[in-house]
Amino acid sequence: MLASATSPRHAQALADSIFEDLKRKRTSLEGYSKGEWILVDLDSVIVHIFFEPIRDYYNFDKLWGDAPLVKRAKDESDRKSTSSEQSFA
Predict the structure, then answer these.
(1) At CA 20, angle to CA 18 and CA 24, rounded to 5?
(2) Measured in whole angstroms, how far is the alpha carbon of residue 9 from the centre of its chain?
(3) With 50 as the cut, is the pLDDT of residue 87 above it?
(4) Structural contact between residues 38 and 15, judged by C-beta atoms closer than 8 angstroms
(5) Would you tell me how many other CB atoms lie within 10 Å of the CB of residue 15?
(6) Are 8 and 36 in contact (CB under 8 A)?
(7) 2-5 and 37-41 as β-strands: parallel, antiparallel, unpaired?
């Protein structure tokens, strides 16, 4: 997952919010002190939080731009109806 922040402090606040919302300790975190590119490892999901100029520089959007979109099902009934759809999360 890629996310943008308008400042390094904003990036840190986004990372803090992830851990607060999930009620997890900050054990799987890289780059927090600078706040330019923060990597949050949540085991099954990796979150990259970029300060906007850094995101533009590395241009991960172009790297993954041709990947198919993945819609996440909210519950089991949604999974059955969307199982044939390809998407990118």
Answers:
(1) 90
(2) 17
(3) no
(4) yes
(5) 22
(6) yes
(7) unpaired
pTM assigned to the model: 0.69
Q: What is the largest CA-CA distance in the chain?
A: 43
Dump pLDDT digits (tens) for 35-44. Answer: 999 999 988 8
Q: What is the mean pLDDT of residues 65-75?
A: 68
CA distance linking residue 49 with residue 65, whole number of Å? 17
Instruction: Compute the average pLDDT of residues 58-67.
Output: 81
* Higher local confidence (pLDDT), 52 or 25: 52
Q: Under 8 Å CB-to-CB from 54, ≥6 apart: which residues?
A: 36, 37
44 phi and psi, to 5 degrees? -85, -10
Helix H segments across the chain?
8-22, 52-58, 60-63, 76-82
CA distance 18 to 12: 10
**Residue 73 neighbours by CB under 8 Å, 6+ apart:** 79, 82
